[in-house]
């Protein structure tokens, strides 16, 4: 329980002594308040206000703003962050969260899990999740790791090269997303083919029809067709829009996948957020 832990000044380090008075510095409030000397910080709680030495790595940093006021577990070694548990739990020096991949320097005091940005994974948020790439791109304005968006029809696998986003293409297919065919050919389930080869007669049995993107084959009125039973949550107020590889903006990743499933289109998430203004804008499909 939180109350079982005693709050100790300076996290067991020795408080600084004012050489002129021979007493510990007092950095609290009132007429007796003293400024902490350089290389130290004020550990201020309800029962004391002591000047404490910073870690060696922090001695050249200036601590600004309130520091550890009333913290149950004392200060972190940086002198400015409240510890979230005993033994510096949740402190930046313990968490070591990745500066690009994590939202903040602190982490869960029990699991040490940092809070990762979209598409970023790992305890320290130091790598992209499978199917995503471009952790260094976050420093240039990306919201997180970007989806690989490899074409289901044109790529060998759904992950990509981590620095460039290049997908692994099937023979004869090119492009970063493996969605480009030589002139005169179009991309289909069987690779690059002539356009008229995609316009096959309507199949009568499921043995003659292959469905993709989660759809299932059903025979109705003597014709086989791919039907998608998936639905997206009714409340999409917290959903993040995504830009599809077709240049359309969808209300969420779920709506993009629903569109691909219903219409058997090879559309994947190309980027988080809306498509650029020059692209056609759409809310994607709805559940109605």
From TrEMBL:
Location of the Kazal-like domain: 227-277
Protein name: Agrin
PANTHER family listed in its UniProt record: FOLLISTATIN, ISOFORM A-RELATED, FOLLISTATIN-RELATED
Domain of life: Eukaryota
Keywords: Disulfide bond, Laminin EGF-like domain, Protease inhibitor, Serine protease inhibitor
UniProt xrefs under InterPro entries: Kazal_dom, Kazal_dom_sf, LE_dom, Prot_Inhib_GrowthFact_Antg
Native species: Armadillidium nasatum
Cross-referenced SMART domains: EGF_Lam (SM00180), KAZAL (SM00280)
Pfam families for this protein: EGF_laminin (PF00053), Kazal_2 (PF07648)
Intrachain S-S bonds: 95-107, 97-114, 116-125
PROSITE patterns in the cross-refs: EGF_LAM_1, EGF_LAM_2, KAZAL_2
Domain spans labelled Laminin EGF-like: 95-147
């Amino acid at each position: 329980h939180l109350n079982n832990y005693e709050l100790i000044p300076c996290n067991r380090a020795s408080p600084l002594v004012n050489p002129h008075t021979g007493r510990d510095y007092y950095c609290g409030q009132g007429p007796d308040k003293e400024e902490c000397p350089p290389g130290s910080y004020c550990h201020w709680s309800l029962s004391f206000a002591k000047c404490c030495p910073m870690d060696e790595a922090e001695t050249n940093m200036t601590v600004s703003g309130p520091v550890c006021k009333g913290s149950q577990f004392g200060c972190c070694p940086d002198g400015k962050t409240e510890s979230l548990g005993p033994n510096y739990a949740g402190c930046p020096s313990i968490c070591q969260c990745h500066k690009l991949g994590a939202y903040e320097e602190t982490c869960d005091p029990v699991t040490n899990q940092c809070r990762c940005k979209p598409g970023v994974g790992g305890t320290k948020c130091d790598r992209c999740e499978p199917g995503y790439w471009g952790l260094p791109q976050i420093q240039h304005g990306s919201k997180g790791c970007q989806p690989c968006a490899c074409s289901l029809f044109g790529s060998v696998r759904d992950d990509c090269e981590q620095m460039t986003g290049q997908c692994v293409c099937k023979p004869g297919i090119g492009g970063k997303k493996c969605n480009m065919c030589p002139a005169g050919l179009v991309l289909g389930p069987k690779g690059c083919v002539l356009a008229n080869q995609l316009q096959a007669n309507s199949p009568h049995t499921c043995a003659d029809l292959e469905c993709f993107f989660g759809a299932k084959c059903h025979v109705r009125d003597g014709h086989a067709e791919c039907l998608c039973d998936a639905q997206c949550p009714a409340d999409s107020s917290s959903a993040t829009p995504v830009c599809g590889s077709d240049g359309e903006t969808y209300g969420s990743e779920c709506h993009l996948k629903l569109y691909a499933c219903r219409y058997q289109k090879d559309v994947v998430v190309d980027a988080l957020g809306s498509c650029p203004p020059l692209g056609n804008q759409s809310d994607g499909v709805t559940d109605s």
